[in-house]
Design goal:
By secondary structure, the chain is α+β, with helices and mostly antiparallel strands. It folds into three domains: 107 residues, Orthogonal Bundle (Butyryl-Coa Dehydrogenase, subunit A, domain 1); 112 residues, Butyryl-CoA Dehydrogenase, subunit A, domain 2, CATH 2.40.110; 155 residues, Up-down Bundle (Butyryl-CoA Dehydrogenase, subunit A, domain 3). It is built from eleven helices and nine strands. A four-stranded antiparallel beta sheet has the order 2-3-7-6, with no helix packed on it. A three-stranded mixed beta sheet has the order 1-4-5, with helices on one face. Helix 8 runs antiparallel to helix 9. One of its GO terms (molecular function) is flavin adenine dinucleotide binding. Its cofactor is FAD.
Amino acid sequence: MDFQHSPKAQDFLKRVKDFMKNEIEPVEEAYLRELHSLDNKWVVLPIIEELKAKAKAAGLWNMFLPDEHYGAGLSTLEYAAVAELTGRSFIAPEVFNCNAPDTGNMEVLEKYGSPEQQEQWLKPLLAGEIRSAFCMTEPGVASSDATNMEATAIVEGDEVVLNGRKWWSTGVGHPNCKVGIFMALTNPDAPRHQQHSMVLFPFDAPGVKIERMLPVFGYYDEPYGHGEVSFTNVRVPVSNIIAGPGRGFEIAQGRLGPGRIHHCMRLIGMAEKALELMCIRAASRTAFHKPLMNLGGNRDIIANARMNIEQARLLVFKAAWMIDKVGAMGAMSEISQIKVIAPNMAQQIIDAAMQMHGGGGLSDDFPLTGLFTAARALRLADGPDEVHRGLIAKLEMMKYKKYMKEA
């Protein structure tokens, strides 16, 4: 395995780092302060569109897509390092048009979408003109087992009728969120993993209603947000089904591989940001006539944070390398491993940074509470830790199948 950045990746890394230093970091704090001062925070402030235009002009746009026709032509491994940089900022992913869930939705449309679907929805998403949502999780069932879904997408002639209730649908609060992907049961009599479909729907379709926005530890993550959405006899053309009825699970597996790499690398960027803040605090703050770094076990905490970040990064790079070489199905264990390791690692380091900042670490004077909230949430997003551990153990025990006794 060779994790050395290619010349192309090195060029993108340098340009992204420079753009963030010169364009994003000088304005992000003021942007967040202005947004949070508004009565209505579900808006796009002009600075975001200005930064997006600059990023697009600089060629720092859609970098997550490996197809040069649509994106930057970076491999999964090459983009992983870019995603780490963007994880240091709350707004960088949108500025570069590389934010979830739009990235996953664009990957789905690029890989599985019909020419008509690509023309209607993929093109404006690629241009950053609209945003999207992914509606899968349901409040009434344990959605860690996706076969539990109760929502339905029933084909009636030349239409498909959507009914059900979804929640934690990320991005539905954004004023430019115009389209969503609805995953639901189409044929309960088909084999278990051929029962579900993914269907495109416009948010202004009759019967689609955002019931409420959901806070995470009191944060609504404006202007993106996570919402509970009801679907009542929503009728869309049958041509809105992605790749055809019954292919929902197939599409989901294709969607989740690269997206999990992106999440995990952004988490590493978040952990790096927290460690940086921790070290600055430890070096500059004095208590009991000593710098904080010389109190208690703070040096051990800093050292362990550095080692844990390096370990996590190497495993994510390995998973990314495997996706590039053998595809997501060949990297199933590694992908699940990083989904457990990366958010837990980030959460632990951010928590240590909060502790090092004392009361300030619990306030919005520093970005740590927002980082902690995101890291904790990502231990559930894309599947809870327990599900991933179960898959890792299953794949590991398959190596010892000859020893297994029948139950």
